Amino acid sequence: xxxxxxxxxxxxxxxxxxxxxxxxxxxxxxxxxxxxxxxxxxxxxxxxxxxxxxxxxxxxxxxxxxxxxxxxxxxxxxxxxxxxxxxxxxxxxxxxxxxxxxxxxxxxxxxxxxxxxxxxxxxxxxxxxxxxxxxxxxxxxxxxxxxxxxxxxxxxxxxxxxxxxxxxxxxxxxxxxxxxxxxxxxxxxxxxxxxxxxxxxxxxxxxxxxxxxxxxxxxxxxxxxxxxxxxxxxxxxxxxx
Length: 241
Hints:
This protein has a domain at 59-97 and 109-236: PEBP-like (Phosphatidylethanolamine-binding Protein), CATH 3.90.280. It is built from 6 helices and 9 strands; from the N terminus they run H-H-H-E-E-E-E-H-E-E-H-E-E-H-E. Helices cover 23% and strands 24% of the residues. It has helices spanning 7-18, 26-46, 49-52, 109-112, 157-163, 217-223, and strands at 61-67, 72-73, 78-79, 90-95, 114-121, 135-143, 169-171, 185-194, 227-236. A 6-stranded mixed beta sheet has the order 3-9-8-5-6-7. It has a 3-stranded antiparallel beta sheet with strand order 2-1-4, with no helix packed on it. With 241 residues, it is of the alpha+beta class.
């Protein structure tokens, strides 16, 4: 059953990310950052994202996800019509704390890190009967700047075009399509961080190729040495209930 939590607080925190105090208010800034991270974590726990999909973690980034036609923003558990999520969303991911400056001319670890964004459905076929869970809906990688999507990689230009893939995509975006009379599904975006520019595609979209219900992102991230640093999600259900 869908859990209704402090969504108003969850929605408002995105605005706080861009307005955290700086300079002489450094202590207040740190408190604000911890509050936002704790609020995201609490919402993920209350909706069993942490538990069903992910192990417990403290978010380092906020995921700003928007479906542009029509305009729908993913707001930590809001309802979005299925017809509104048929095309790839646009996204930004914002650090919840300032990036550390380089030391003695060395490159900052945040600049060298590579990010991967995935979308998964832990409620396929339904939340009460997750026999197809998790279903892989999207994997896009080689995200190196925490504010923009990846540039086109020249070596893969032709093959990416032939496959209909967006640059950086490991799995093409599969629009959510919850079956009739299966209630609301949680669609979970997960931001992962690692050092390798190469991640392996799952063997299958269903169960991410692991062949067992409730297996997916957690297993795949571990196999590819990726750490969870952020998450966001929405609910969607078939109009026939």
